[in-house]
Amino acid sequence: MKTIIEPFRIKSVEPLTYTTPARREVLLQEAGYNLFKLRAVDVLLDLLTDSGTSAMSTEQWAAIMRGDESYAGSESFFRLKKVVQDLTGFRHVIPTHQGRAAERVLFSSLCKPGQLVPNNTHFDTTRANIEFMGAKAIDLPVGEAGYTQARFPFKGNIDVEGLEALIKREGPGRIPLVMVTVTNNSGGGQPVSLANLKAVRDVTKRYEIPFYLDACRFAENAWLIKEREPGYADKSPREIAREMFSLADGCTFSAKKDAFANIGGFLCNNDDLLAERELNLLILTEGFPTYGGLAGRDLDAIAVGLEEVLQPEYLEYRIVSTAYLGRHIADGGVPIVEPPGGHAIYIDAGLMLPHIPRHQFPGQALAVELYRHAGVRSVEIGSVMFGDAAHLELLRLAIPRRVYTQSHIDYLVEAILEVNTRKKELGGFEIVEAPPFLRHFTAKFRPAEGRS
Ligand code: F0G
């Protein structure tokens, strides 16, 4: 059989609520045209994020009942620790309430003001946590990543020559760690090859700089390596994931993505002294080292999710269903980041709406219109999110794991293609109010003056 199906059946359902376009117009105005400010009940298909939005499995719900809520020495922690150690090979496993907490603990322990942290592309919380320490977050994506229509298989790669040049220019002492994000979320959900990770390992070893993975979507990255990198077709996702982790000195992880959990994260490394410093910080804000801000049941749900995500049937379905959305809108004339990656399809809003200048946020304009037209919530990943650091003006359609079926995606395809037929009528936005950090969450917008 050629048809790839959802590798699960549905046991519990959550009804969707419908709104009219007229109602959505009012809601948009009330939200200051910021989709983060909508109530979720007013959204029909919620593609804002794939983070914390997964449907948990029966085994995960069963594990929730098994959770050991002891303050210290919980069995749930030891179950999680074993799964994480088997997968990553790292000695220290420090649980945190989500990925950004792992980032804060890591960067507070490693970074000093004036230092530089390179990454293929920093996610917004990663960048913000580095900059909060007074250090600078530097994006070094490969050249191909700048061209959304280029079909390079590993557009998530970091520019290794650029990395080495930076280290030589600034001196290794100024660079407390190098990070690589797998898959590269802000760069279009694109995978990083093992060859690239090996090259980063070689460079960082030579200059004695710690190398960390931001491993949120490690399993999707492993599957894309299996499909695209010569020599890996016959390896299991677990073997590939293990090889990825074996190249790094540590990782940060948000369990809200590839672990199918609704909350959680962890920080890993092999450095005893550093881990001790991190655990002291952890206790200050997250909690005791065997729960790190989570309930015991959350730790168990993560442990089970980390095993489930590596099942080949799941990963094949996941990547094929993301590509299904991508191909259908791209064939209908909507420019996407090619080729489709793991957790999301990214529309190149800059290319789709060339009449809207960057400073009027084409990605935001498209997000607003897609909600107004069809009740679909997506997120801008461009100048609203990153300001001047933005490389591209993208709209991300993130696909929650195991949540929507193919007919939901067909509805989405129809909505996007309808908006595409009248794209010239869309106008830009300007910011009315914004906070100094992570402005996309709370900024208020209004339609730009003088738009047609
Ligand atoms: N790193 C990457 C690559 C991410 O995508 C995220 C979160 C984080 C770190 C932070 O993890 O949310 O658990 O604190 N990304 C979500 C998203 C929010 O929508 O892409 P967190």
Describe this structure in words.
This protein is of the alpha/beta class and about 450 residues long. The protein has 2 domains: about 20-50 and about 310-445, Aspartate Aminotransferase, domain 1 (Alpha-Beta Complex), CATH 3.90.1150.10; about 60-310, Type I PLP-dependent aspartate aminotransferase-like (Major domain) (Aspartate Aminotransferase, domain 2, 3-Layer(aba) Sandwich), CATH 3.40.640. It has 16 helices and 14 strands. It has helices at about 20-30, 60-65, 75-90, 100-110, 125-130, 160-170, 195-205, 220-230, 235-245, 270-285, 295-310, 310-330, 350, 360-375, 385, 405-420; strands spanning about 45, 90-95, 115-120, 135-140, 180, 210-215, 250-255, 265-270, 345-350, 375, 380, 395-400, 430-435, 445. The protein has a 5-stranded mixed beta sheet with strand order 2-8-7-6-5, sandwiched between helices. A 3-stranded antiparallel beta sheet has the order 9-12-11. Helix 5 (about 125-130) links the parallel strand 3 (about 115-120) and strand 4. It is globular, with a radius of gyration of 21 Å. The chain starts with 20 loop residues before the first helix and ends in a 5-residue tail after the last strand. About 50% of the residues are buried. The model has no long low-confidence stretch (mean pLDDT about 95). Bound molecules: ligand F0G.
